[in-house]
Amino acid sequence: xxxxxxxxxxxxxxxxxxxxxxxxxxxxxxxxxxxxxxxxxxxxxxxxxxxxxxxxxxxxxxxxxxxxxxxxxxxxxxxxxxxxxxxxxxxxxxxxxxxxxxxxxxxxxxxxxxxxxxxxxxxxxxxxxxxxxxxxxxxxxxxxxxxxxxxxxxxxxxxxxxxxxxxxxxxxxxxxxxxxxxxxxxxxxxxxxxxxxxxxxxxxxxxxxxxxxxxxxxxxxxxxxxxxxxxxxxxxxxxxxxxxxxxxxxxxxxxxxxxxxxxxxxxxxxxxxxxxxxxxxxxxxxxxxxxxxxxxxxxxxxxxxxxxxxxxxxxxxxxxxxxxxxxxxxxxxxxxxxxxxxxxxxxxxxxxxxxxxxxxxxxxxxxxxxxxxxxxxxxxxxxxxxxxxxxxxxxxxxxxxxxxxxxxxxxxxxxxxxxxxxxxxxxxxxxxxxxxxxxxxxxxxxxxxxx
Amino acid sequence: xxxxxxxxxxxxxxxxxxxxxxxxxxxxxxxxxxxxxxxxxxxxxxxxxxxxxxxxxxxxxxxxxxxxxxxxxxxxxxxxxxxxxxxxxxxxxxxxxxxxxxxxxxxxxxxxxxxxxxxxxxxxxxxxxxxxxxxxxxxxxxxxxxxxxxxxxxxxxxxxxxxxxxxxxxxxxxxxxxxxxxxxxxxxxxxxxxxxxxxxxxxxxxxxxxxxxxxxxxxxxxxxxxxxxxxxxxxxxxxxxxxxxxxxxxxxxxxxxxxxxxxxxxxxxxxxxxxxxxxxxxxxxxxxxxxxxxxxxxxxxxxxxxxxxxxxxxxxx
Lengths: 451, 317
Prior knowledge:
The structure holds 2 protein chains of 2 kinds.
Chain A lengths: L6 E4 L2 E4 L2 E4 L1 E5 L2 E6 L7 E3 L4 E4 L1 E6 L12 H10 L2 E6 L10 H11 L5 E4 L15 H6 L4 E3 L8 H12 L4 E4 L4 H4 L4 E2 L2 H6 L3 E2 L1 H18 L3 E3 L5 H12 L4 E6 H5 L21 H12 L5 E3 L27 H10 L27 H8 L1 H8 L15 E11 L18 E11 L2 E5 L2 E2 L2
Parallel strand pairs in A: 1-6, 2-7, 8-9, 9-10, 11-12, 12-15, 13-14, 15-16, 16-17
Antiparallel strand pairs in A: 1-4, 2-3, 4-5, 7-18, 18-19, 19-20, 20-21
Helix pairs in contact in A: 4-7, 7-8, 11-12
Chain B lengths: L11 H18 L13 E6 L4 H13 L3 E6 L2 H5 L4 H9 L5 E6 L4 H8 L3 E7 L5 H15 L6 E5 L6 H12 L3 E5 L14 E4 L2 H5 L4 E4 L5 H4 L6 H8 L3 H6 L5 E3 L12 H4 L6 H20 L8 H4 L6
Parallel strand pairs in B: 1-2, 1-3, 3-4, 5-6, 5-8, 6-7, 8-9
C-alpha cells in the first residue's frame, strides 16, 4: 500500500458498535487520529448526509484464485468488495488447488498485496479438503490464518471433525463447517418442498443441514472447540445455534445475503441465477433468518460471493453451478430490502424518508443490526474480542462511508467482479458506498475504485 | 399463443380448444391420404437431448401431415458435456431459421430457458420430472373420446409420481377438465410435498380401483429399487401392479392407460396390456392427432399457408 494519507471525513453520522452520533473523523498514519466536532485538516472528504461505519468484513468470499482466474481474480474481487463497502474479505480456501499449505497462504498474500481491500486467506481443515487428514493447522495458525474450512465439501467424518476440534482448540483458531449431509442432499438442486415437488427438481431437505448442525454442536460441546457454521439457511438450524450459545458453547453462524432476500419460489422460472448452495429456502425459513438478524442474534451476514464462468450458468438449472456475484451488491441489497425501508423515524438516518419495509421483507431490520452483522460482528469472529468495532482514536482506519439517499439500478455489467451472474439484476437499490478507507487509504472515493 | 411449455396453470378454455382442434385433425388422419398443406413452408425441428424415438416420431409425423419441413437434432448428453451450453445449442438452431423447436430434455425447466433465448416457438416434449404437455393432451383426448367428457371422471394415477413428468402434467390437465384424481403410490414414490395439488392420495390400490373409471399406470424404472425407493420390483408389482387378478375385478367401464413403453410384468401384467380396456394404442394414435393440433395452433396464422383452415372442415384457425 502507498504512503498512508491524512484527511478528515466530515459531516457523517457515525454508526458503530458503540451506537450512533454525528462526528467528524480524522485519519492519519493508517489509524483514526481523532473523532469529534468541527475537526480541521488539509484534506477533507465530504460525507454530509452519510453514514460512517467500521469497514465491512466478509467471512465468506470466493476470489477465483487459484484455479478460476477467468471468472475472478483477487484484484477484481477485492475491487468489487471495496466498492461494496468491504475493507476485509476472507478468501474461501476452495480454489484449485485448495489452500492447505504455508506456500499457498503466502502466495495468496503476495497476490493480495496490491488489492483494493484486505484479502485474508482461510485454509482448509483437511489436506485438499478431502476429509482424510488434517492440514498443518499449527503452521498455518502461526502464519496468522484464523479460519479453517473445508467449505463445499464439509467435514462428513465425525471422527475427523472431533480431532480437528480438539487440535484447533489449542491454537485459538476457528473451525468453519458447511453443514450439509451429503447423503440427504445428494442429487438435490433446490429446497425440498412445495416448489421442488411442483417443478420436478430433486430437493435438498432442510434436514440435510439440520442433522449436521445437531451433530456438530454435540461435538463442539464434547471438545470445547470454537465452531463457526457457514451459511446456515433454515429456521431450525439458527434456533439450535442460538440455544447452544445460550448454554455457553463457543459457536457462531453466518447467513448468506441471498437467503435473507429470496425463497424457493423465486426459482420457479428455472433461472440458474437463482440457484444457490445452501438453496433458497421456504418463506418461513427466510422470515426466521431475517427475524434473527433483526433481533441482533446473527453473528454474520456474508456475501458468499461465488465466481463461475458464464458457461456454468447458461445450462439447465440442475446442471448449473450454484452461487452468484454478490460482493459489490450485498450491502446495498441489505439496505434496500431489509433496513432502510424499515426506518420509521424520519431523521434517524440522515436524509432517509420514512417508508414501508422493503418489498417482501418479513420484518424491518434496524440499521445497526444490519451493519453490525456485516461489519463488527464478523470482525470479532475473525480478529477475536480485541476488535471493538468502534470508531475511536487509535483504531485502524478501515471505514465505509455510505450514502443512504442515493437510488440506483443494479447493472451487473457495471460491476467490478468478472462474474456477472445475479438474480438481482435490474433491481432498484437505495444506499450506496461513497468512500471506502482501508488502512487509512481511500480505496474508493466518491464511488470510484482507485485500485 | 407462441409456446407450449406446460399445462400447469393453463386455463380450461385453452385445453378444450386444443382438444376440439384435435377432432378436426382426427378427421384428417382418417382420410386415405392423411395430409393437409396447413404448415407448408414452415420448419419444425426436434431437439432431443434425451432419446425418445416414440415421441420424436409422433411429432415428426404430425409435422409432416401438416406439410411442414422437419429436421431432427440429436444431442447426446455426452457431446453437450464437451462444453456447448444449452444456449449455444439453441442459438445454433435459431440461426437456421426454424419456426418451432420441439425439445426433450432430461433437465426440468430446459424448455423455459430456451423460450427466453429464442424467437421461435418452443414446444416442450418432456422436461425432466416436470412436464409433458402433449402427453397430457393426448391422454385427455383419449379419455374424452372414450367417455365423452372428463367431467366427474374418477382417475387413478398409479406408480412413480415423484419422477414422472407425465403425472405432473396429467394431474393438472385431468383436474382442470373436471376429473377427480387419486395418486396411488408408496411415500417414496410421491413428491415430498403435495401442497396445492388437487388430488387425493392412497396407498391402497385395491380400494382405489373399486371406485375408478380410468387407471393410469406409470412406467416403473428398474433403477428405483437400487435407490431404496422400493424393496424390489416383485414387491412393487404385488402392491401397485395391475395384475391379472386386479384386472379381473375392475368394473366393466374401467379403462387402462399407460404412457409407454410398458414394463410388462412389472406395472402391468402381460395379458392385461392386451385387453380391450387397455387404451395404449389409442393413446399412440391420438398422440399424432393432438400434436398436429398443437403445431397448427402455434404456427398457423403467423404466415403459414392460408388454405389450411378451409381444408379442415371448420377448424378454428
